Amino acid sequence: MTKLKLGVLDQSAPGPNDRAGEALRNTVALARVADRLGYTRFWVSEHHHAPGLEGSSPEVLVAALGANTSRIRVGSGGVLLPHYSPYKVAENFRVLEGLYPGRIDLGIGRSPGGMPLVSKALQCGEAGRKEARMEDMLAELAAYLELGDPLPSGHPLSGLRAMPRVETAPEIWLLGSSGYSAALASRLGAGFAFAHFINGTGGQGAVRDYRRHYRAGPLGGRPKATVCVFVLCADTDALAEREAAAMDLRLLRQEKGEYGPLHPTPEEALAYRYGEREKRRILDNRKRMIVGGPDKVRRQMLAFADSYRTEEILVTCIMSDFRLKVRCYELLAELFLG
Q1: pTM of the model
Q2: Average of pLDDT values for 8-23?
Q3: d(Cα 289, Cα 34) in Å, to the nearest integer?
Q4: Domain residues of the chain, as ranges?
Q5: Are 308 and 320 in contact (CB under 8 A)?
Q6: Euclidean distance between CA atoms 111 and 46, whole angstroms
Q7: Is the pLDDT at 86 greater than 60, yes or no?
């Protein structure tokens, strides 16, 4: 067996027969499985007004994950900082760090996480106001977490401290699917997680540039890079391909803005009549996935990790049945964590 650190990014996606509440409870159950199997970290995402991706409040969900695990790091993948007050984000994660010291990751994204109305609602009608000052917001967040310099005396919030005054701080990661977040992470000292499951091209270059230009800063003191990819591993290649067919149809629908409440079944996907353009999109989207039985997945994941020069991969697995999802993570643990 070849060692490779593995983490989980779970989007609380319900299967064809699941309700939203079941999807959230399954996320907690999956975290217990990952903790037992030896996974390194377990992150949950933030989406809004997107039926089929039920995790809208990672801070709340992380609290439940911490309470139901004992070893694994738990965190956000990620909090969409442009929507929020850095002060409130700092206090949320100080509370989490106080409850589960040394186990909290604060992953930060800059995407809207939903349609334009989402940004308008979250930012109290001022959508677009914060995106232009992401670097300033990160510096403010670092000050509240007491990772970097305090706010200067001329700052309108100078002297403000985030509570509770716990002794440790979360690990900071910037999430991205392009070179922008990589450059920002290298400049501020944060860890960097590339979302290969969103963008199947260009990630290796972004991670390489992150390492090349990294310098210690307010968000961290050493380079840390990971990459997140869809993995659909089953006991046989054929079963994995059936599940991947359902994922193919799901991604096509999402590209059309069709966020249905349920994941397509393999039967529905295999009966679907794809046009030529859709077939081309499926081939392109497969660059975002690793699919197969254990032997095939082992080879692909080792090659994938080598292409990124990383020792850790974050796995996101969406299956038509929760039992198959758990089995995917069990197989990966047998391959790499034994």
Answers
A1: 0.94
A2: 88
A3: 20
A4: 5-336
A5: no
A6: 10
A7: yes
